[in-house]
Write a structure and sequence with these properties.
- The protein folds into two domains: 39-112, AF1104-like, CATH 1.20.1700.10; 120-364, Uncharacterised protein PF01937, DUF89, domain 3 (Rossmann fold, 3-Layer(aba) Sandwich), CATH 3.40.50.10880.
- It is 46% helix and 11% strand.
- It is built from 13 helices and nine strands.
- A seven-stranded mixed sheet has the order 1-9-8-7-2-3-6, with helices on both faces. A two-stranded antiparallel ribbon has the order 4-5.
- The longest helix has 23 residues, at 120-142.
- This is Damage-control phosphatase ARMT1-like metal-binding domain-containing protein.
- One of its GO terms (molecular function) is hydrolase activity.
Length: 368
Amino acid sequence: MERTSPQVPFPLIKVWIDYEYRPCTIPFRFPSDPPQATPAELAWIQVFRRSIPSFKKVAEQDDSVVDAPKRAAKFAERYGKMLDELRADPFSNGGPPDPIVLTRLREICLREVGFHDIYKRLKDEENTKSLALFPNVVRIADDIENLGDRIEHLVRGVFAGNIYDLGASQLAEKFEEKACSFEDSCQQLVSRPWVIDDLDQFKQKWLRRPWKKAVIFVDNSGADIILGILPFARELLRRGTKVVLAANDLPSINDITYDELKDIVSKVKDGDGKDSILGVDSSQLLVINSGNDLPVLDLTAVSPELAYASQDADLVVLEGMGRAIETNLYSQFKCDSLKIGMVKHQEVADFLGGRLYDCVIRFTEVIP
């Protein structure tokens, strides 16, 4: 499978003499490092190696692929060999390794042996469950009269939804052992202050002057998009902000795709042909193909459609561990930006000086 559109740079990346956009947050390698794999590279090769059994197990159960168990074994063998090669020579296989290279190689291995969307069944199941819960989740938020308190509640909902991530091996095992409800996730968030906690600044800016247009790079299917992001986006719409939801072009883990998100948005809209979501006008909500095909995000390559729709935005939201923490946490933009996600790898928690399952909300306001 290939991307369906050409790639262009995201137009809101800051362009300045003292700033060069680099997507990866953790410095894996410096120019002075020897040609051997660095400690950071070795650690992350091991992170991706730990994920192989869960990917193999899901691939084995993909009944859309003939001889799925045999192909899953080939995937595991091929990807494991690539990781061994990167460990021995970090400049092999398109390296040196970082989250973008490692996830790209994993997707290549899956597609080479015939898998297109191994999490499709799981995504559909979680979307169905979350759609049934959506009206009540929205009603609970609407019942909070104080806008500042409602914003905080919605942000917590984004975190609660974002914990459902099958790309993190520990979480994949947890969800296999016992299903976690959205309500449980909301109650079990780690206490504030979070490892990066700009929630108060974000609330103050929203209360002071709502944005005219927001671009939100979304993350996972199920509770993440339906119970976390959509109520958050609905509140932006209610306050007069145009909203662009940017979703992946191609499947990757349990990330929501553009086609899947279009279908979900149509299902949450009110009936009888109304362009609204539970009473809030949604005519200013736009779903766009981001051009991305990974759970991480390199903003030098997005779809032309997204680039065009984003030019006049005054808020960029990057959501999820891959898009907002492992990549783009320190990215700078020409407009306000919000990076929001949950830390689901111990290696990221250690780098940030936080806890596993800690929350990150980094808000940067650009003063005109």
